[in-house]
Amino acid sequence: MLLKKLYENHFLEIDALLTKEGKRLKLSPNDLFVLKTLFTMYKRRTFSITSIARKIELSSGEIAKSVDNLAKSGFVSLELETRKDKQVEVFNLDGTFNIITDLYLNDIREENISKNESNLSETIKSLENALNKTLSANELQLIQSWYEEDLYSHEMIISEIKKHELSGRFSIRYLERLLNQTKLNKKPIDKKTAEMLDSIFKDIK
Q1: Geometric angle at alpha carbon 46, from 49 and 71, rounded to 5°
Q2: Which of 35, 38, 74, 141 gets the most CB atoms within 10 Å of its CB?
Q3: Are 18 and 43 in the same domain?
């Protein structure tokens, strides 16, 4: 779990992140306050309404209601753990990391859809200029699949068009072969992880 590792290794300011994304996470002010407080107790993980009440100005009833809301929404889970031969109630915040991860992955997906539409339009225009014709439905479908399936980067596609459009044998299939060859020569990169990290650090600055 990437966000959990970042937090535990002190690379992620969870308090700032929760403050910024509280509304998008649909957390009420009290629920947000209680969740932040649970993160201050993260290492021990012992669940105690009394301990939470010592840290914030909410009644025990309000805290219990917020914990119940957070549990129902999947931000926190409560479980029993054996410590020194005793059963102790502890809390687990893995759900919060999962919910935030899903939020940012959805942001990336939506951003990519918008970006891909713009990039696709540019590629079609460049190819129609290079081939001096309107692309067929099959050709358009093929090019669209490059973006939908994330087969090649937009920069790579445009670069190969510019390099080979005057070759005399340029076609969509020829371009696809060139792209496949270029892709094989490149080292694979974990693009989704890189994008998510970039998005997270950008948002908490």
Answers
A1: 65
A2: 35
A3: yes
Residue 168 in tokens: 């005399």
Number of residues in the chain:
205
- Reported as a single tens digit per residue, the pLDDT across 21-63 is 999 999 999 999 999 999 999 999 999 999 999 999 999 999 9
Q: Which residues contact 204 (CB under 8 A, 6 or more apart)?
A: 12, 13, 16, 17, 20
pTM for the whole structure? 0.69
**Rounded CA gap, 112 and 123, in Å?**
16
Q: Give residue 38's domain range.
A: 2-92
Scanning the structure block, which residue is given the tokens 């759900």?
Answer: 95
Together in a domain, 77 and 32:
yes
Per-residue DSSP letters for 62-114? HHHHHHHHHHHHTS-EEEEEEETTEEEEEEE-HHHHHHHHHHHHHHHHHHHHH
Tokens representing 171 are 């076609």
Q: Which domain-ending residue is among 92, 125, 144?
A: 92
Domain boundary among 92, 119, 138: 92
DSSP calls for 133-147: SPPPHHHHHHHHHHH
Paired sense of beta strands 86-92 and 77-83, if any: antiparallel
